[in-house]
Amino acid sequence: MAAPKKSRGAAGGQGRPGRSLALILIVMVALTGGMFLADQPTPRLGIDLAGGTSITLEAKSEPGQESAINKTNMDTAVQIMERRVNGLGVSEAEVQTQGDRNIIVNIPKGTNSAQAREQVGTTAKLYFRPVLTVAQGTPTPTPSASSSGKPTPSGSPSAPTADKGKSSSTPSASATTADNGKASSTPSASATTQGRAVTGALKTDTTPTPKASTTPKADATPKADATPSASAADEAAAAKLQKQFAELDCSNKASRAEAARGAKPTDTVVACSSEGDAKYVLGPSEVSGTEVDNAKAGFDQQRGMWIVNMEFTKKGSKQFQTITKKLSAQPSPQNQFAIALDGEVVSAPQVNTTLSGSAEISGSFTQQSAEDLANVLSYGALPLSFNEASVTTVTAALGGEQLQAGLIAGAIGLALVVIYLVAYYRGLAFIALLSLLVSGILTYTIMSLLGPAIGFALNLPAVCGAIVAIGITADSFIVYFERVRDEIREGRTLRPAVERAWPRARRTILVSDFVSFLAAAVLFVVTVGKVQGFAFTLGLTTLLDVVVVFLFTKPLMTLMARTKFFASGHPWSGLDPKRLGAKPPLRRSRRVNAPTEPKEA
To answer: Do 277 and 137 meet the contact criterion of CB atoms below 8 Å apart?
Structure first.
């Protein structure tokens, strides 16, 4: 009884090829439909085929930091720029060094080149600084030399005094969160001095605890200029800062850039809001952007605005907790901390309680600007500052000619494969050509969908990878066909030969495709730029070869074996036993001799 059950199991396996064919047909229809629903009927083309934008960035050194332009920092900048651009969904962007000071960024056509230009060149140096003084972003007349802190005759209110802790009725620009207090519109000389005193106070723990009476840390000593006995040099520095603050015009981009240039994290600085409608005097940095572990953009439903949420590292969380504890005890606007990105204040929220672990950047963000900022913060700050030396539009004329030549070469290669299959395998060539067609449809639709999905762009090396894949796919068919022919040569009929040949062919095909995929994976990891396009396409088509052979070629071969044309061994079927030199059927050579009867004595 065991033998019939085994026979029925084999028959059952042969009786379900339609399911596999129906499955791959459904997949092809779904991919084709998704391609048109995504409005992406063709694959995205790389910069060498479609043209694009080429940006040249030149590294610039800050005063006293000329040695910072070195190979290590340049390589780090390239890696960060690649992550930023890829974070925007722009694949096939080339970022590479040129010489010892330049970085070339090639961005394919069809992407937001302006957005990418802003992303790759942004230094993204982030600091959390205490706010000492805030005013409107336009220049203000220099106040009188008196330090009484009284209002000026023009009616402009003075900055809040340290003993009262009040602010004027004029609100600052909306660079703070919804619960911000009011800020003065014009600083005075006394406001700057008091602001410096606030900075010194922030450096010392003012909590009335026994611990506060202990000797403060070396870096927590109050500034000397925070006392009436300030030196002449400190007074001159304060006067210079006051003058710089009064003359600062935040509505002028050049002035804003000049204010942000060369600012050190340990300095008291002036800065503009990112919108240019407010200016600040900021104390030394309390938390650096390098302590931001993760940043994500999100929409605040309650306030109806886009925000950026940041998670700090363990060290950054402790630093943030310390500064917010001190700021929460200060009057307005000294209870604000400014989130300064590349020298500009993107947000300056008030602190009403001690915070730790995470922070939020809010302001007049759109969805795009919030996502851009989160992307920049997540991938880190550039170790160098860059000037945009040149921006060039790349035409696709040369790439188009090369693509045409490549497609002609591919068509010639495909034609030679078809001629060989028809001449040698005859009717089996029909199965091979249908399998190649299915593989081509799957490859084309998936490449088209990968464009909007992960930013995949087809370049010339990728086209070469697809052409090479024709040979890999055809090789799988040949392996299977030859295994079937070997079984027929052994004297088996077609249907058993198809099933017996499959396990042996399957093993060979999997090993061969695994080697090809491994080579593509290694090539993708160890190379950069366009060569990765070749490796990616080669790996993708190798995986699709396995899918096509298992779900299409084998089931179709099973169905064809049931037809009279193939089963009878027609001379044009490619499976003619006579042409293959088949042996007599195996069942005739397996006769069991009848036992001989013992002779009588």
So the answer is: yes
What is the four-CA torsion angle of 210, 213, 214, 215, rounded to 10 degrees? Answer: 160
Q: Residue 60 in contact with residue 123, Cβ under 8 Å?
A: no
What is the distance between the alpha carbons of residues 374 and 366, in angstroms, rounded to a whole number?
A: 12
- With a CB cutoff of 8 Å and minimum separation 6, the contacts of 182 are 167, 168, 169, 170, 171, 172, 332
- Dihedral angle over CA of 497, 498, 500, 502, nearest 10: 150
pLDDT at 592: 53
Residue with tokens 């994500």, as numbered in its chain: 296
Query: Which residue type, as a one-letter code, is found at position 125?
Result: K
Quote the mean pLDDT of the chain.
74
What pLDDT, on the 0 to 100 scale, is given for residue 361? 76
Can you list the residues of the chain whose pLDDT is less than 70? 1-15, 62-66, 86-93, 109-119, 121-124, 140-230, 260-262, 379-381, 396-400, 528-529, 584-601
Backbone angles phi, psi at 494, to 5 degrees: -65, -50
Please give the C-alpha separations between residue 351 and each of 133, 169, 177, 270, 322, in angstroms, as whole numbers.
Answer: 15, 20, 10, 21, 12
pLDDT for the residue numbered 528: 65
- Cβ contact 392:104 at 8 Å: no
Q: Is 64 left (phi over 0), alpha (psi -120 to 50) or beta?
A: left
| Tokens read off for 532 | 């990765």
Q: How far apart are CA 569 and CA 577, in angstroms?
A: 6
Q: Tens digits of per-residue pLDDT, 444-461?
A: 999 999 887 877 778 788
